[in-house]
Amino acid sequence: MTDMDKSSSEKLVLEFKEDTALTEMMRRRVSSLQKTGQKRQDGERLLLPFEAVHRLDFPVQELNFSRWYFSLLGHGRVTITGISQHWTPDLTNLMTRQLLEPIGTFWRNAEDPEESPLKCLEADMQEFGERIAELAKVRKVMYFLFAFKDGSTAANLSCTIEFIPEK
């Protein structure tokens, strides 16, 4: 059955929302390490200046991935990295082993017309969406690192993911 065969009432579209408090907390961690001259914890993943933490809140847990919706004004590259369900941001630092694969990447090159469709690695985006649906079964919230490169900004991005709830 294709997406067109499903009624819209059976679809659940969730928006990735920036978690500004968590992003700021992680930026303070970087700043604190820099000020004190300390090194990061072995295996710790520090937030880079062009990254922000986003979250998805799942109102239901039994979901099947359907599709991505993303738009980007202008040019640039956005990567989305999922974070394992084992990360508890209020208790522990983010560790590299908690980053999930594959990552989602989409972009529009500087030489591409602005109205041209965004490019992506479709197989990775499909697998990534399926992985998110799988992890939703055990989490009500999932966190992601969004990286904005090559001229992209959070203000120019719209990113949602569509699921079909299991009956």
Give a structural overview:
Helices cover 19% and strands 33% of the residues. It is an alpha+beta fold and 167 residues long. The strands form two sheets. A six-stranded antiparallel β-sheet has the order 2-3-8-5-6-7. A three-stranded antiparallel β-sheet has the order 1-9-4, covered by helices on one side. It is globular and about 50 Å long. The two termini are 15 Å apart. It holds the Pfam family Olfactory_mark. It comes from Characodon lateralis.
Number of strands: 9
Strand percent estimate: 25-35%
| Main sheet attributes: strand count, strand direction, barrel closure | 6 strands, antiparallel
Helix content range: 10-25%
Mean pLDDT: 91
Write the topology of this structure.
Elements: E1 12-15, E2 17-18, H1 20-36, E3 51-57, E4 63-72, E5 76-82, E6 104-108, E7 119-120, H2 122-136, E8 141-149, E9 157-165
Antiparallel strand pairs: 1-9, 2-3, 3-8, 4-9, 5-6, 5-8, 6-7
